[in-house]
Automatic annotation (TrEMBL):
EC number(s) reported in the record: 3.5.1.2
Assembly notes: Homotetramer.
Annotated residues for binding of substrate: 61, 111, 155, 162, 186, 237, 255
GO BP annotation list: glutamate biosynthetic process; L-glutamine catabolic process
rRNA processing as UniProt keyword: no
UniProt protein name: Glutaminase
A molecular function (GO) term: glutaminase activity
Entire-sequence positions represented here: 3 to 306 of 423
EC category: hydrolase
Catalytic activity: L-glutamine + H2O = L-glutamate + NH4(+)
Family: Belongs to the glutaminase family.
Origin species: Aeromicrobium erythreum
Sorted UniProt keywords: Acetylation, Hydrolase
Length: 304
């Protein structure tokens, strides 16, 4: 079967209306819960899609691995690991999860670690820092990406929990900037608007060890390796073990319903479906990946 036909068939067969659209960010509650899309991008930039592939949604937590990558590129791995650990927490994404003693967030895929990673991106001020983040995502996606201002305003208005996390990080010496500025930048990063096509391309750069389809090295291979390792162990929050055993590839989810997976050396995959399971991962997205993994033998622990 040609790839787009196969992808359409997978979407048709992984239906269901279980799960709930995120509503702690008011704007996300407005999303059409029935949207469903998939994109698969090869290392040389060819993208196959099916479903609502041109529908835009906010990147949310799928931004976390990419900002972590930029922080490492800017500060070096040692300096970043000194501030953010790499241990799976088994916690929910918004857990106030800091290591006893050092105060380090458990990993960069939960909010505490992601807020710390955002602050480690270089930039003379918070506006420049955000602009570097946005422009880096754009290079990864191969087009200019912008903020969905409605999502941004809506989330910032109720960002009390993330603000609390940022103040906590500041008291333990992990965060140097002013918490409100950092949370503002982090919230803008989460509100960057993307399609599955963009996300599949971004994932494919990680799959290609940091190399973009045009040959430009956007990330050092060791940085891509670090990011993929953390995605594999922490990318699906408290469902990370379930995911690694059933699907078996590094992944990252976001509360708007996006989900990316990376098959190193092969492809980047993105799915979008707004209804979330109890872990905050896209319910249909997880099923689509389980199906792809079975059909295509994606599981990294399996020798085909
Ligand atoms: N911006 C969201 C938050 O900080 C991201 C969470 C997510 O996608 N899991 O709560």
């Amino acid at each position: 079967t040609p790839i787009p036909d196969y992808l359409t068939q997978v979407l048709d067969e992984c239906g269901g209306d279980d799960g709930e659209v995120a509503d702690y960010i008011a704007e996300l509650a407005q999303a059409d819960p029935d949207r469903l899309a998939i994109a698969v991008a090869t290392l040389d930039g060819v993208v196959a899609t099916a479903g609502d592939a041109d529908v835009a949604f906010s990147i949310q937590s799928i931004s976390k691995p990419f900002t972590y990558a930029l922080a490492i590129a800017d500060q070096g791995l040692d300096a970043v690991v000194e501030k953010i650990d790499v241990e799976p927490s088994g916690d929910a994404f918004n857990e106030i999860s800091l290591e006893r003693g050092s105060g380090r967030p458990r990993n960069p895929m939960i909010n505490a670690g992601a807020i710390a990673a955002h602050a480690l991106v270089a930039g003379p001020g918070s506006d420049e820092r955000f602009e570097r983040v946005r422009s880096f995502y754009s290079r990864l996606a191969g087009r200019e990406l912008d903020v969905d201002e409605a999502v941004f305003e809506s989330e910032l208005g109720t960002a009390d929990r993330n603000m609390a996390i940022a103040y906590m990080l500041r008291t333990v010496g992990i965060l140097e900037g002013a918490p409100p500025d950092v949370v503002r930048g982090y919230t803008r990063q989460c509100a960057v608007s993307v399609t599955v096509r963009d996300l599949a391309r971004m994932a494919a750069v990680l799959a290609g060890q940091g190399r973009a389809p045009d040959g430009e090295q956007l990330l050092e291979p060791q940085v891509a390796r670090q990011v993929l390792s953390v995605m594999a162990t922490c990318g699906m929050y408290d469902a990370a073990g379930d995911w690694l055993t059933t699907v078996g590839i590094p992944a990252k989810s976001g509360v708007a319903g996006g989900l990316i997976g990376v098959l190193p050396g092969q492809v980047g995959i993105a799915v979008f479906s707004p209804r979330l399971d109890r872990h905050g991962n896209s319910a249909r997205g997880v099923r689509v990946f389980e199906r792809l993994s079975r059909d295509m033998g994606l599981h990294l622990m399996e020798v085909s």
